[in-house]
Amino acid sequence: MSKGKENKPHIGIYGKRNVGKSSLINSIAAQEVSIVADYKGTTTDPVKRSFEITGFGPVIFIDTAGIDDDGNIGKLRIKKTFDTIDKIDLGIILINDYQLDKYEEKIIEKLKSFETPFFIINGKADLIQVDNNNKNELKIKYNTPVLDFSVKNNNNIDNILDTIKKLIPDSNWKTNSMIGDIVSSGDMVLLITPIDIAAPQGRLILPQVQVIRDILDNDCVAIVLKEQEVNGFLQKSAIKPKLAITDSQIFLQAATSIPKDIPLTGFSVLLAKHKGDFENYLKGTPKLSELQDYDKVLILESCSHHVSCEDIGRVKIPDWLIDFTGKKLDFTVVAGLDNIPGKITDYAIVIQCGGCVITKKQIISRLKPAVEAGIPVTNYGMTIAYIQGIYERAVKPFI
């Protein structure tokens, strides 16, 4: 679970050792994708399994270690199981004989703290008599569906899949438009896309591809240019785009090229509004001006990638912030979904990347400890815009 989460719903399966978590996943997938054995502790680390739900789309099941594991190694496995909870969109609590105790209660408590929906499956239903009274008691107590399931006869799979589809919030898997509230059908949107060392060979970076698709989905026209082509294009064509979107690293150059009466923003700012904690970003970004000597700055990347001398999160933003503030700052970069070192209160501010590879739920959960502790949060694009003095223009299209 150290790498960035794929932009599709994640479903965590939780329960004691040998309760049947891996067997449940195999039954849903109709193939043996998880190792199953009759002894406890077969699953040692969280394991991700892809699956396509008909009429819904792709999801990722996370097969976790038993929450009642013991010993020093067992404690580490349990910690890894709990560490998955802020990375999922739906939890499934698997029990036997309608019995829940302190182990399941801790999982449910953590799920509720992240406002993550969950439901309960009573497994191995072929070995005991179905008890509707116990089932109803659990439904009422936890205010969630309780389903019976047996691997032996593979019953109730359709009901389980229907429950998954009903409980995962639409916002966690349906992609809302990024610019639909700004543009209308037929509008032209200008994209300024530098081709530098960060651009994959023969391809555009993911945020640019996502925006182009959104432009087409809104029946608009995408005009894609490198930065040195913008002035000549606008002069020769006399086209006035409805909106201009630039790579954040060249905000200043783009602001000079794009007339003031054309709204201008950045790809990362667009992502901040689309799937980030935008309201808290707006509050937190100006706090960059208040950084002091030896303040610790936490930079959160959503993906793992090769680090170059032009790396935006590890090199450029730190250099720009030091120049902007004139302070001696201490930077910590956390890639993927690795744990944050130390306490969140150790940091003066948190800077989240655009999050193109993860869901909004993932970003909100990632930033939740900082927000609750009163630590300012912002994102790459809004940070760069603020440092370069065009913050107000960059966020204006969205406020």
Mean pLDDT: 86
**Annotated CATH architecture of the largest domain:** 3-Layer(aba) Sandwich
Q: How many helical stretches?
A: 14
As a percent range, the share of helical residues equals 25-40%
* Rg measurement, Å: 24 Å
CATH superfamily placement of the largest domain: P-loop containing nucleotide triphosphate hydrolases
Give the SSE string: EHEEHEHEHEHEHEHEHEHHEHEEHEHH
How widely separated are the two ends? 35 Å
Brief description of this entry?
This protein has 399 residues and is of the alpha/beta class. It has helices at residues 21-29, 71-83, 102-113, 132-142, 157-167, 206-217, 230-237, 251-257, 267-275, 278-284, 312-325, 360-373, 380-387, 391-395, and strands spanning 10-14, 47-53, 57-63, 90-96, 118-123, 146-148, 188-192, 221-225, 243-246, 264-266, 296-300, 330-334, 349-352, 377-379. The two termini are 35 Å apart.
Q: Can you walk me through this structure?
A:
This protein is α/β, with parallel strands linked by helices. The protein has helices at 21-29, 71-83, 102-113, 132-142, 157-167, 206-217, 230-237, 251-257, 267-275, 278-284, 312-325, 360-373, 380-387, 391-395; strands spanning 10-14, 47-53, 57-63, 90-96, 118-123, 146-148, 188-192, 221-225, 243-246, 264-266, 296-300, 330-334, 349-352, 377-379. The strands form three sheets. A six-stranded mixed β-sheet has the order 2-3-1-4-5-6, sandwiched between helices. It has a four-stranded parallel β-sheet with strand order 8-7-9-10, with helices on both faces. Helix 11 (312-325) packs parallel to helix 13. The chain is globular and about 75 Å long.
